[in-house]
Structure formats: structure tokens, C-alpha cells
Amino acid sequence: MWYPIARNLLFMLPPETAHSISMKGLQNAASIPFLKKVLTSQFQYQGRSLAKTCFGIQFPNPVGLGAGFDKNAAYLDELEMLGFGFVEIGTVTPKPQAGNAQPRLFRIPDQKALINRMGFNNEGLEIIAKRLKERKAKSNSNLIVGGNIGKNKVTENAYAWKDYCTNFIGLEEVVNYFVVNVSSPNTPGLRELQEKESLRKIFAELQNLNKNNKPILLKIAPDLETSALDDIIALTHEIKIDGLVASNTTIDRSLLSTMNQEKGKKIGAGGLSGQPLLDKSTEVLKYLHKGIADRIPIIASGGIFTGADAESKINAGASLVQIWTGFIYEGPMIVKNICKHLSALK
Ligand SMILES: Cc1cc2nc3c(=O)[nH]c(=O)nc-3n(C[C@H](O)[C@H](O)[C@H](O)COP(=O)(O)O)c2cc1C
Fold it and tell me: In tens digits, what is the pLDDT along the chain, a chain of 346 residues?
């Protein structure tokens, strides 16, 4: 009821300012025990269990928060309070990065979309790993934490595998699963790493380090040609990839209305997310699921706003779903609403 009003106020601010004000506000509210209790009972889904085991991990519910929202793992307790079953932190890079120049995040409200060219802004592996270690030491949380990992902008693609390995070593103790991100459109040349040989090298090196069998997933772009999707399907037969995340943002502006394509041109480079991405990412998910069947799980990401959207992803082959842009437009009740819908399906 109140969120449309809050959203109108937040949308008067630049997107990144609105993001940090709302997360800091939530953090302050959650620091008061009484308010924390109220917020928990308001936002957390309390119905029949939706727990689900995927790649050997028990998820409290199948609704997660996509990478890039809590890049620095600063708000995990607050996000758990809002009912998320899992949160993917990052993208983390070995060295801290400022990301691209601002403004780099734009709203397209009439199509419930965002365009971003953040460029992996993050505090870097060392600080993020330390924060996660401290949280782990004092928390008895059930929240599943995924570590989405990437390469620094300055690292050449030929040495990218080393950045993925550095991140893996630094985060292994403190995350439940990893996602190799080679699909962001905002780091020059990164998407070239989706090519078969590069992926084979990155996964071979990571699995070599992976003595404790931590699940390692691959997050892909929705803009890949069918032949590239076939290569990824073939690779999952050849090398240990524990799951896929389908998908990241798209560079395809034809998903916008004619008027918004004009707006998109003015905004410039970046990845499009939100409602316009729903069908495109579901098509990719369906294609992958057909090729992989249920051999490895797929996490759906792209345009999920409602329980019906989440249901369509599950019907297309997803085991878990992640939201991001939907959280901005629908507000914090989104997780509970989706969980309620999924619970009614069972
Ligand atoms: C501002 C912003 C930053 C993002 N940063 C990352 C990131 O660092 N790593 C990543 O793998 N995905 C990132 N994403 C992509 C999301 O995790 C998600 O895959 C994508 O937005 C599609 O989901 P949605 O339509 O629900 O937003 C970002 C998305 C947005 C909007």
C-alpha cells in the first residue's frame, strides 16, 4: 500500500542515491530490535515451507536477490529480514574498482526497466571477504550467500582466469556457491570470455582449486547466438559446471518501445533489465533447459516482478529465481508475494 508513495519519492532522487538511502534506512531501522521484529513479520513469508535443495545446498526458499544489488556484502542481514532465501553478492573483483563514471544507472519507469553501466564498482576481494568472515563469526543466519566473481577491468582476457581463481580462494570459506560472471556488458571484452575455450580454461582452473566441491555456476548473457548456447550446453557435458544463471542484462534495445529506444539512445551504453527482459531471458532459459534437462540446475534471472513471472520461469526449467529490477519497482513485499504464489501452486 505505502510502497508506491515511497517509490515516487525515491524516484525523485538519482538512482544510486535512492539505492544507498533506502538500504541505509533499512539498516538503521533493523538496528532497533522492536522495529526489526515488526519488519520481519511484515516482509518474511511464513507459510508452508518452500525450502529447496539445489546443487547440494538447502535454500530456505527459492527467491533470491540477483548480483549487483549488494555488491559489497554490506546488507545481508537486512536482505534476509526482507525474506530473500539467498543473495548473490558482487560482482567481486580481486582489486577494488570505482566502476564507470556517473551517471551510470537509469530508470525507464513506463516499461519498468533499468539501464546500467556500473562497470563492476566494488570494494574489492579483501574488504568483502573480511566483512563476510566477521558476519559468519557472529551470525546464525540461514541465508544462502552466492559469490558472483569477475575480473578487474585492467586484467587482460588472457589472464582473466587468474582473477577468477584469486576470488575463489579469497571467498571460498564465506560463500555457499560461486557464479562466474562473464556476461556483464559493462566491462570491455568480458563477454568474449563466454567463448568455449576461455570458459574451459576458467572452469578447469577453478575446479582444480575446488577441493571441497563448492558449487560453481556460470552466468550467461541473453544475447548469445544459438550456436554459443549449444557450445555452453556441450561444455556442461565435458567439464564440471554445477549450474547456470540465465540471464544477465541485455544490450538489445529493440525490447524497448519506440519512444524508449530514443531515450535508450540518449542514455548510451549499458545493460537493460526489468520487464522488457522477461521473455527474452525465458527463451534462453528454455533453450538451455532443453539441452541440459535436469542434469544441472538453472537459476532464472530477468524481468521477474510477480509470482506468475516466477512460475513461468519454473515452468521453463528454473530451479530457483532471482529478482533485481522488480525489487526496485515493486518494493520489499515482492519476495513474500512471490513465495505466496509459489506456495499456492504446490
Ligand atoms: C544496477 C545493476 C547492477 C548489476 N550488477 C551486476 C553485477 O555486478 N554482476 C552480475 O552478474 N549481474 C549484475 N546485474 C544483473 C542482475 O543481477 C540481473 O541478472 C539482471 O538485472 C536481470 O534481472 P532483472 O531483470 O530482474 O533485473 C546488475 C543489474 C543491475 C540493474
Answer: 789 999 999 999 999 999 999 999 999 999 999 999 999 999 999 999 999 999 999 999 999 999 999 999 999 999 999 999 999 999 999 999 999 999 999 999 999 999 999 999 999 999 999 999 999 999 889 899 999 999 999 999 999 999 999 999 999 999 999 999 999 999 989 999 989 999 999 999 999 999 999 999 999 999 999 999 999 999 999 999 999 999 999 999 999 999 999 999 999 999 999 999 999 999 999 999 999 988 999 999 999 999 999 999 999 999 999 999 999 999 999 999 999 999 999 6
Beta carbons within 10 angstroms of residue 310's beta carbon: 27
Angle at which helix 160-171 crosses helix 125-138, to 10 degrees, equals 20
Is pTM beyond 0.85? Reply is yes
Distance separating alpha carbons of residues 177 and 57, to the nearest angstrom: 9
Q: Is 116 in the pocket of ligand 1 (CB under 6 A)?
A: yes
153: containing domain = 3-345
Which phi and psi (to 5°) does residue 32 adopt?
-100, 115
| CATH code of the domain in which 256 resides | 3.20.20.70
Nearest Cα to Cα of residue 121 among 171, 67, 191:
67
301 is catalytic: no
Q: Which of 183, 184, 273, 301 is catalytic?
A: 184
Q: Which of 248, 256, 284, 330 has the most ligand 1 atoms within 8 A of CB, as the residue to mutate?
A: 248
Does residue 66's CB lie within 6 angstroms of at least one atom of ligand 1?
A: yes
Q: Is 91 in the pocket of ligand 1 (CB under 6 A)?
A: yes
Q: How far apart are CA 212 and CA 206, in angstroms?
A: 12
Domain count, the chain: 1
Q: Which atom of ligand 1 is found nearest the CA of 116? A: 1
Distance 91 CA to ligand 1 centre (A): 9
